[in-house]
Design goal:
It contains eleven helices and 15 strands. With 383 residues, the protein is of the alpha/beta class. The chain folds into two domains: 37 residues, no CATH class; 290 residues, Glycosidases (TIM Barrel). An eight-stranded parallel β-sheet has the order 5-4-13-10-9-8-7-6, with helices on one face. A three-stranded antiparallel β-sheet has the order 1-2-3. A two-stranded parallel sheet has the order 11-12. β8, α8 and β9 form a beta-alpha-beta unit. The protein is globular. The chain starts with 18 loop residues before the first strand and ends with a helix. The relative contact order is 0.14.
Length: 383
Amino acid sequence: MVFNATGALPKGANLDRYRLGIVNDRHVLIDPKGKPFYSLGINHINAVEEKASPNIFDDQFQQDWKAYSLSAVSDLERWNYNTAGYGSPEAIYPLMPYMEDSFLERNSNFLPNDEFYYPDVFAPEVQAEKLRKIRTMCRHADNPNLIGYYWTDTPQWDLQRSLSTRGTNWVIEIRKLPEDSPGRQRYEDYRSDCQRSNTPATDEGFLSIIAQEHYKLIGEATRQLHPGALIFGERYLLEDHPKVVLDAAMPYIDVISIQPGSDCFESEYFDDLYARYKKPIIICDHQCSFATSEYANTMWKQLDSEQAVANMYKNYLSEAVAKPYIIGYHRCQYIDRFNPHPGVLKQGLLREDGSAYEVLQKAVIAANLQAQENFSRYTNCAR
């Protein structure tokens, strides 16, 4: 759907869900009321249920998700966020725009080796389990606050990166399967096809077949269960998405979802990615962190101080909003939680006890407000 420079809707437009549009030559989300919408969100709001000391979910909210969600939404609105990112409690869904997600595979980068594995994507039982998860993911398809769907978080696709970090990769694991398994048979068919056509059988070539099988199954299922919904696809780490993988995903996704990790906006990378695929991009998970008196080790890139992280946030978000193809920015983590693997603090805007990181919060409030004002100016649409 394309909108004119003033943001006016085409005659007869269906306004029952979030859509994509173009306003003033910018890719934008359009909310159910027909207004351009720049998604500013926080992920992992439901991390409050993870072990902590003190645990305000127990002590302050008595494990009442509704009360906790009302409090979290109040915080997000005060901080000038407008989206509950992935990993939000269902009690938030009636309260504000949100993202739905599903972990379809156990091949996320953050998983320890004893929980990580590459499945046989050609096996009927594996496919049936993924379809079950897709059906569960789409259970709130009638909620107008639903912006769209994410699939697996940070899947480890890159063959060389996986080999160096895990000692294996998806193609190696398929080759190790029993000869009568669906995946091994498909691999042998691929080798035979290459021999007949006198072309080399490469790991990248078979990775492409794995990706095509994977995305066709989950892409068609998501479209069938919720026609017209926005699909944001898998949440790729920056640079961990080989071209053959993205090529396979493109027919089934509407937005490319990227998790960058730098304290500087990766302008050339995003420009190149958009130039190749011409699809809008969302920065679906990002932050930088700083050490605290309780935790020396923190997830994401650690900067020298809370003020340095505050400055980073302002600058990074400003550059992201200026890009005409980036439709949103979601920050990682609402409240502090220690992750025993790999032994780091996932740092939020609140400490474990619910108290504020005041320097960071002040910067976030101002930066988010400026981002929304800039977006309104870019789209020529009043806030």
